[in-house]
Write a structure and sequence with these properties.
heterotrimer, A mainly alpha, B alpha/beta, C mainly alpha, A: 15 helices, B: Rossmann fold, Rossmann fold, 7-stranded mixed β-sheet, 5-stranded parallel β-sheet, 13 helices, 14 strands
Chain lengths: ~350, ~375, ~300
């Protein structure tokens, strides 16, 4: 183990440590069904948010079809299980189908300017929702699919929330690891370069379209996995869980946690799912607060919680001088196009350049 | 070197947060269930439904009916001295949230019965959980499959959707001798269900709809669908969707030259449909309802007076069925006392014979269906009247 | 009804709902043109502004009933004030990547929906048309006279806005600051004021659109999202930022929607519409009327 190797893989190794610790917790805590249920929900959303984060924070795109891709995964698993298929098979199929559909959605990335790609995802996400609602023969239509069998691996039956929490947390940690490896790989570093300065990256020979397509496919992979878990979690799925609102919820979690970081999605998912639980008794104020939260985060804490903590830590440790360099490398603060350029907006911030306007 | 340290410090910090959070969760977890069977402790009942979002009006009507009944009973001393405590949680008609709500009510509030939900989809989502925990579930949802899940804990406080549509179509075919029908419905689970029941009943008479047109729940223009319908010249246009959309459709249909008969199930027998369509267009529309008018008998008149006094608005079908559901639960609670558990309440409900509700007489079958009376009505002069 | 008559009726109906989409698309394009950002709260502002105006037209909150004209004005002005407030709120983000404000508008949209729910309830209201609205029969095709008022107002609005933006100094200042804030500021253009006006006009336009179409639809807090999305799609089809394009895009979208639901399938109408949008975005993202200046990858 050379020093260089250690330095390079220090990040993922820490993640392994994190993984082991978290995996031990259900055993230590012996969660009862109420808390296990919440943990399971958080696990599903962590996976979804990680997928969105890959596309947004690293790829520089907004994928508003995440809800629909989530549905692709859920329906695949549900249909296979209802036809007496096995869960491992269903899980793999969901992941593959999610990846495939996401790649199809991202194909226009090879042709189209980045900000219009977000609009394409908006339209196709809604299109998926419409298919789920109307293709009654396959998806059960608006009524959905009921009595989905529980997940079973060999003789292990995951028929209550506590047992499911082992499976869900295990899968969640695996996805975190994969994301960590991905981000620290050569591909991941090229992605960061691309996100920070599109033109320079292209000059260096990075095929922007292929990179963005890969990010999309990845987000679909994660959405498919999350969907598979969702299907066996409630034993009932319906199109209302896979609509545009779901994509926005995932977007909000990604934002709150901190885009372009690895820990951001975890924080964002835990915070917002937990917040939702807390606000349950507030009736219609709940959604008002949710909307206000999005506005506040955008105004005050654009790096999300992760960015805020990083900034806080750096200030506490008095690294203000060296901070400037680090901030430039930290993905979540600053104006230089650090975050996804959404529907309209250049990657260099400020007002849109003349190229993007459609006439005067 | 300095980069190295800051990054690992960052990760250490990052490691702490989920760790601490999960420990916190774990520490707060592990609530054993304690039975609240103390002599004067309140009886915990749950309510789950939409209080926000597009379906909020359903939750609004449902809670008003239930609270009217429960508060009246509490004023009389509750159940042998024990007050009934209603815990309401919003689900915005989202299945994930409904299940979360149910989980919380079960483990934190230790409910023994739950009114949930006005939407069939979310009712289905919660059903396995409540059944597993032996908690009585009373639902105003209309979908047929709610009572087909093999649960002995679910009870419907209204006739099912098929009953409404079947009575309507039978009337139209046998009494009024209509032969050609078209259906227009929305793409929600409610609309799809209603259209299904209408089609099934027509098939019993050897008929099938000339066309089934669909629209999105929020659409406001139906020119395309209506033109397709009018081209087929049906005698009757059957509504499968909600009262508001159906009202808009009725108006537009007349404007486009449709002169045929309008008809629909439970949603059409509402003041809201008349309001949206306008009294003149709604005139002579057939509908079926389990609660046509507040003036049916002394019981309904008393209910209407009390409802109006409390909520400052006149009640209609939704409030009435919620009230019936609450009264049935109160009856069962009194019968089960002093054993206030889900099992005892369920048994008590199944033992009820010929209970007199606002919507008719009730005896529950093994599946949880107890209401069967639906009658045909017609809208005359802006009023719902029996035919 | 004969085949030809059916087509004509469908087209007329499509134009009717198309006006609705056109007015919403106008709002999107206007804000994009003058501020360079997509305001995802446009549909929700429409709903909120409509409720504000209807509060006075129909005496909703017990504040008294007023004439349609006064209620219309009140709705527009109050909604415009909200627009100014939004600009102030998002001012710190003005120099950053516009995606931030965009996401912020999503949050605002959610808040508006639920605040409206809280204030006016979720039940919704039926709005009577301010004129007698018995349909007239033109050669077998039935048309509601109110549609003509809506169409006329739409045309007036487009012309008025277009003139304002191209002929007045203020309008030119707006376009300049949208194109390049820093240079505009160098020329002494008060960029923040410009943005405030842009937002106010956009919000006021949303209210005007909503109040105009209120008698044609059923007004409830949920209409913001569904109308907003469709209006947005229409704006893109016509070319985001192009005002006449927004109107044409809206009308086209309405007609396509109606014709598809009448002839092909009513369940999959929206699906076809969104797939169409995708095709447009891939093949000609600047829309039908937009200038071909968009860079392709």
């Amino acid at each position: 183990m050379s020093k260089a190797w250690l330095r390079r893989w220090r990040g993922p190794l820490l993640w392994v440590a994190l993984a082991v610790i978290l995996a031990m917790l259900p055993l230590a805590a012996q969660l009862d069904s109420f808390w296990a249920h919440i943990v399971n929900e958080m696990a599903i959303y962590v996976i979804l948010t990680m997928g969105m984060n890959l596309v947004m924070g690293y790829g520089g795109q907004i994928n508003l079809a995440m809800g629909g891709l989530f549905g692709v995964g859920a329906y695949s698993t549900a249909i296979i299980l209802l036809h007496k298929g096995s869960f491992p098979v269903a899980f793999v199929v969901s992941a593959l189908l999610g990846t495939l559909v996401a790649a199809l959605i991202g194909l226009p990335a090879l042709r189209v300017r980045s900000h219009y790609l977000a609009l394409v995802t908006l339209g196709l996400g809604i299109a998926l929702d419409i298919i789920f609602t109307n293709w009654e023969a396959v998806t059960g239509g608006a009524i959905g699919l009921t009595s989905i069998p529980v997940a079973a691996i060999g003789t292990l039956q995951f028929d209550d929330d506590t047992k499911m929490s082992y499976l869900f947390l295990g899968v969640m940690l695996a996805t975190l690891l994969i994301a960590a490896v991905f981000v620290h790989s050569r591909f991941g570093r090229n992605l960061k370069a691309m996100r920070d300065d599109l033109i320079a990256a292209r000059a260096m020979g990075i095929n922007v379209g292929i990179y963005q397509l890969t990010c999309f496919a990845f987000s679909g992979f994660y959405a498919g996995i999350a969907g598979s878990l969702y299907a066996v979690w409630l034993s009932y799925i319906s199109p209302t869980s896979f609509d545009l609102n779901q994509s926005i919820f995932i977007l909000a979690q990604t934002l709150v946690g901190g885009m372009g970081t690895l820990i951001g999605p975890v924080i964002g998912a835990i915070l917002l799912v937990g917040l939702q639980q807390y606000l349950l008794s507030f009736g219609d104020l709940q959604l008002i607060i949710y909307g206000a939260l999005i506005v506040v985060i955008v105004l005050v804490a654009r790096g999300g919680v992760a960015g805020g903590l990083t900034a806080l830590w750096q200030r506490l440790a008095g690294r203000a001088r060296r901070g400037r360099k680090e901030i430039a490398m930290a993905p979540s603060t600053g104006e230089r196009g650090a975050v996804a350029s959404a529907a309209i907006g250049g990657t260099t911030g400020g007002s849109p350049t003349r190229e993007e306007r459609t006439g005067n | 070197m300095h980069l190295f340290r800051s990054r690992s410090h960052r990760f250490a910090l990052a490691l702490l947060i989920p760790f601490v959070l999960t420990l916190f969760l774990a520490a707060c977890g592990g609530n054993g269930s304690t039975s609240s069977s103390a002599n004067n402790a309140p009886i915990e009942i749950g309510w789950i439904g939409p209080l926000s979002g597009v379906n909020a009006i359903l939750g609004h009507w449902d809670t008003q009916g239930i609270e009217l009944a429960i508060d009246a009973q509490n004023a009389k001393g509750g159940i042998h001295g024990r007050q009934i405590h209603l815990n309401k949680l919003d689900d915005a008609a989202d299945p994930t949230q409904s299940v979360n709500d149910a989980q919380r009510l079960i483990t934190q509030n230790h409910i023994v019965a739950c009114f949930c939900t006005p939407n069939s989809g979310t009712t289905l989502a919660i059903e396995p959980l409540l059944t597993r925990n032996k908690i009585v579930q009373i639902t105003p949802g209309l979908a047929g499959n709610l009572t087909e899940q093999g649960s002995s804990y679910i009870f419907r406080d209204t006739p099912m959707g098929l009953a409404f549509e079947s009575t309507l179509i039978t009337f139209l075919v046998q009494q009024k001798h209509f032969k050609s029908f078209a259906i227009i419905t929305d793409t929600t689970d409610y609309g799809q269900g209603e259209a299904q029941y209408q089609t099934e009943t027509l098939q019993k008479f050897g008929l099938s709809p000339l066309t089934v047109q669909k629209y999105g729940a929020n659409d406001t223009d139906f020119t395309g669908q209506l033109d397709a319908i009018i081209a087929k010249h049906p005698q009757v246009l059957l509504f499968g969707g909600s009262e508001v959309a159906s009202g808009l459709i009725a108006k537009q249909a007349r404007r486009l030259g449709f002169t045929g008969q309008f008809a629909g199930g439970a949603a059409i027998g509402t003041p809201k449909f008349i309001q949206v369509a306008g009294a003149s267009i709604a005139n002579n529309t057939y509908f079926t309802s389990a609660y046509i008018t507040n003036d049916k008998n002394d019981q309904t008149k008393a209910f209407a007076a009390a409802y109006e006094a409390r909520w400052k608005e006149a009640p209609e079908g939704h409030g009435a069925k919620a009230y019936d559901g609450a009264q049935l639960l109160i009856q069962a609670l009194n019968a089960a006392y002093p054993t206030i558990t889900g099992e005892a309440i369920a048994r008590a409900l199944h033992s009820i014979r010929n209970f007199q509700g606002l919507q008719g007489t009730v005896t529950f079958d093994a599946k949880g269906e107890g209401f069967h009376d639906t009658s045909v009505g017609v809208i005359k002069n802006g009023q719902l009247t029996p035919v | 009804m004969t085949g030809l008559l059916l087509v004509a009726q469908n087209i007329v109906g499509g134009l009717g709902i198309g006006c609705v989409y056109a007015l919403i698309a106008l709002g999107f394009s206007l804000i994009y043109r003058t501020m360079g950002l997509v305001n995802f709260a446009q549909g929700n502002l429409l709903m909120f502004g409509t409720y504000l105006g209807l509060t006075f037209y129909m005496g909703l909150l017990g504040l008294g009933k007023f004439s349609p004209f006064i209620a219309f004005l009140a709705g527009i002005i109050l909604c415009g004030l909200i627009g100014i407030g939004l600009e102030r709120l998002f001012r710190p983000l003005a120099n950053l990547d516009l995606s931030y404000i965009l996401v912020g508008t999503i949050g605002i949209g959610i808040m508006l929906d639920n605040i409206a729910n809280h204030i006016w309830g979720s039940e919704g209201i039926v709005v009577p048309a301010p004129i007698a609205n018995n349909e007239i029969n033109v050669g077998g095709v039935r048309i509601s006279p109110y549609i003509f008022i809506v169409m006329a107002m739409t045309v007036l609005l487009v012309i008025g806005l277009q003139l304002f933006l191209t002929r007045t100094n203020f309008g030119r200042g707006l376009r300049a600051s949208a194109q390049d804030r820093e240079i505009a500021a160098c020329f002494g253009i008060p960029v923040n004021t410009m943005n405030a006006v842009a937002f106010a006009v956009g919000a006021g336009l949303a209210a005007a659109a909503g109040l105009l179409i209120a008698p044609m639809i059923y007004v409830n807090p949920a209409i913001g999202d569904s109308l907003g999305i469709k209006g947005f799609v229409a704006a893109i089809i016509g070319g985001l930022g192009d005002l006449p394009g927004a109107v044409i895009g809206g009308l086209l979208f309405g007609v396509i929607e109606t014709v598809i639901s009448g002839y092909i399938s009513s369940s999959y109408t929206d699906l076809i519409a969104y797939l169409l949008l995708t095709v447009v975005l891939i093949v000609r993202p600047e829309g039908l009327l937009g200038a071909r200046t968009v860079e392709k990858v």
